[in-house]
Amino acid sequence: MTSLQIYLIIMGVVLVIVFLFIGRVQxxxxxxxxxxxxxxxAPVSSRSFEGDDEPLIRLAGHERETQASHLxxxxxxxxxxxxxxxxxxxxxSVLFSAEEDLQYRPLVQAIxxxxxxxxxVNWQVYETDSExxxxxxxxxxxxxxxxxxxxMPVSSRSGPLTETRxxxxxxxxxxxxxxxxxTIRSHREKELxxxxxxxxxxxxxxxxxxxxxxxxxxxxxxxMSGVKNFxxxxxxxxxxxxxxxxxxASSQALYTLGDKDLKPILxxxxxxxxxxxxTFIIDVPQIRDVAEAITxxxxxxxxxxxxxxxxxxxxxLKPLGIKQIExxxxxxxxxxxxxxxxxxxxxxxxxx
Length: 352
Hints:
Layout: H1 3-37, E1 91-97, H2 104-112, E2 122-127, E3 132-135, E4 145-153, E5 155-156, E6 159-160, H3 163-179, E7 183-185, H4 190-206, E8 209-215, H5 224-233, E9 237-238, E10 244-247, E11 253-259, H6 265-269, E12 277-283, H7 290-308, E13 311-313, H8 322-331, H9 344-349
Antiparallel strand pairs: 1-4, 1-7, 2-3, 2-4, 5-6, 8-12, 8-13, 9-10, 10-11, 11-12
């Protein structure tokens, strides 16, 4: 091979390397230009939710928005303490928002017209200044309110929350929201109804009512008017349901009192027949201090017997004495699974 051939081969290799290098440089510049021309993505907020269809405010224990929501894509997330004071184990909530300040009177009137809600409900409004939820009864016209929510239990004495019942509630609340031009946000998912079923099964085991009864003898003449005056003097209150209600010094409910079939006292008062018996009912889940309620009811029963005759018995018509009462008190001290008798959540779960 001559010197000329070797020289040509070397030059050819050099040219190939040069062309490859120039091609790489041009490709790099082109790629950099494209990257610089692309719009920069907005920084992700730690409060943002994944997906355009997610609610502005995530409700406790829920994952999917209902068809009732009027939320539009592109709305800006807001910072509300939506889950504040909502016990996701026992409760669920529905949120409403308004474009203008909520007015108390039309709001209350609209709420009173709602039919078909579930269990014991609690309405709250969101105070913008204090950034906190307050009960609707504490509505202050000097404050600004744009958000409203209703909290309901997942189970009550009418049964657990089912998907059908949930749909009925949402339909009623949607009509309410439409009338006031509110946006409604709620969620539905399988876990909510499974949780409701679990709580219902638990409540069925601890939904206890203690009955103390006074039986008057067949020949004992006891007038309702005499018993009524005696109970009123003791401080019991005759309520609209026709039953006597006992409260402690802190105005907390202790027990109710009616005739032996728990018929309203007002009905018996107009009955010409003499009183045959009385029944005390202690609704354990609704009472904060069960032992106090049992003691007070037993004391009242014995005072009635001392004044009008008769005998104190349980629901099986067996005599009730101090020994039996103390045994009941020990059994009723606590309801487990995190539900304490008399607390707000217990009153909701064991309401009708």
